Amino acid sequence: MLIVMLGRPGAGKGTQIARVAARLGLDVVATSDVLRRLADVPHPLGRSVRDIMHTGGLVPDEVVVPAVAEVIRAGSGDVVLDGFPRTVAQCEALDDMLPDGVDLAIELVVSSAEVLARVRQRLVCPQCAAPVAQATCPRCRVAAVRRPDDDEEVVLRRLWTYERETAPVTRWFADRGVLVPVRGTGPAEDVTQRILAALDRSSATG
Ligand code: AMP
Q1: pTM for this prediction
Q2: Measuring from each residue's beta carbon to the nearest atom of ligand 1, which residues come in under 6 Å?
């Protein structure tokens, strides 16, 4: 089963993916983790990936697609993708990688205004990059920080990039009949239940 999670940056994809994957026993492939590993390599490519991520643009498809393809191929096949695909070219590349295509694309629907309000409060662990609700990461025991790309100007740029590059991705999945919009506001557990219900409905009809 391959599920794609779409939604504006700051919509809560990372949080919901972790919850849904844990309950259904799915692997998570987060493109930003794959790219962060590339960015750590002391090489001009690593530096360029780091610069793009810090300024809120998209890393070029020629870099992202092979890196994600490698991780998908190495996994169990039961996967939730976080942050991929983000362009129509990436949708097409994903379609080529999978014999049966994507089972479901969940769009977590959260407005830009709500995203801006959320990222003003968002903290992550500087070591494992997980979202952290308190001042210290419970796993790594280091102080949580704001994400470098959560600077307000960068967030606006990421929202703009989303509208320009990623909104066509939701249309791409809608055209193939696998897009399910899910309201992403309210308590995290309510959102998780809405996603699980959407997955149940799709496996009942699919
Ligand atoms: P995220 O945490 O998913 O919002 O990703 C953080 C940053 O990683 C984005 O702002 C982009 O710079 C980069 N990134 C993540 N996924 C992709 C992708 N599929 N294509 C290109 N760049 C990406």
Answers
A1: 0.83
A2: 9, 31-32, 35, 52-53, 56-59, 64, 83-84, 86, 90, 149, 158
